[in-house]
Design brief:
single chain, 272 residues, alpha+beta, 4-stranded antiparallel β-sheet, 3-stranded antiparallel β-sheet, 7 strands
Length: 272
């Protein structure tokens, strides 16, 4: 698990609801159960500041970092997709983007990763499609400086034609297999966490569960049910994730609070 990616998970899942800020010492404590060393945490924090995701600030417990408005938007969008709190029906229309060919391979890869995160699939090197408009896609494309055209399209063949478009843009068999692998890998790890387990163990297990689930934001566009295969593996995986994320949440929250409180206790003892 990379420190930068873990910090996004930490801020999004635990610190955003608590004001989106934390002292450096707490960040180090909270990532230690994941096997992430303090130097890696500090390096990742510095990188996120340079990239505009975090603001440095002074807290009563020492130096800390606050998420920027840019980070808050991205984290809120990710949380809505992770926990599927904004699912809506499909109006039968596609959002279609036709790009001017990017000049460099690295630029194409970076843009492709960002478009995939926003729910777009690639029909060919220049054409991307989604079943719902991506809220930030215009800003993303303007930022890259790549020319593009954007259309709203409805397939004349109805749902069957739309399903053919979907299967060109996404490998649903590969995504379904990935969901089955996710459940198979996580089940034995989660079964080790019982009501008698300590809070740190529950927190680490839940953190890894959410971290693994978050990777599907880049792979699964969360298509409307009408365009999915029957007995979609993603539905079973989502139920599995929801059950264990909810089960482990109270213990994980207690651990987070204990790490944040440790800094407050240390600051008070220094002041007294």
């Amino acid at each position: 698990m990379q420190a930068r990616s873990a910090l996004f998970d930490l801020y999004g899942d635990y610190l955003r609801p608590r004001g989106g800020r934390a002292p450096v010492a707490a960040l180090v404590r909270l990532l230690a159960p994941l096997g992430i060393a303090p130097p890696a945490v500090r390096t990742a924090v510095s990188r996120m500041v340079r990239q505009g995701w975090l603001h440095p600030l002074r807290l009563s417990t020492g130096p800390g970092y606050l998420i920027t408005s840019k980070a808050a938007r991205r984290l809120d969008e990710a949380a809505a997709r992770i926990y599927r709190t904004n699912r809506a029906g499909w109006d039968g229309r596609f959002d279609l983007i036709v790009l001017e060919a990017p000049a460099a391979r690295r630029e194409r890869q970076r843009l492709g990763a960002n478009l995939s995160y926003l729910g777009y699939g690639m029909l060919d090197e220049r054409t991307w499609v989604a079943t719902r408009p991506g809220a930030d896609v215009d800003a993303l494309l303007v930022e890259t400086g790549i020319g593009y055209e954007r259309f709203t399209a409805t397939h004349a063949a109805g749902t069957s034609g739309a399903m053919a478009v979907v299967r060109r843009a996404w490998d649903l068999e590969e995504i379904g297999n990935a969901y089955e692998t996710f459940v198979a890998e996580q089940r034995p790890l989660l079964s080790q966490v019982t009501p008698r387990s300590d809070d740190e163990l529950a927190y680490a297990a839940r953190f890894r569960l959410v971290h693994a689930w978050r990777t599907f934001l880049f792979r699964d566009p969360q298509l409307p049910p009408a365009l999915l295969p029957e007995r979609w593996a993603g539905s079973n995986a989502a139920a599995f994730f929801d059950r264990h994320a909810t089960r482990l949440r109270p213990a994980a929250d207690r651990y987070v609070e204990s790490c944040l409180d440790a800094g407050l206790r240390a600051a008070r003892s220094k002041g007294s």
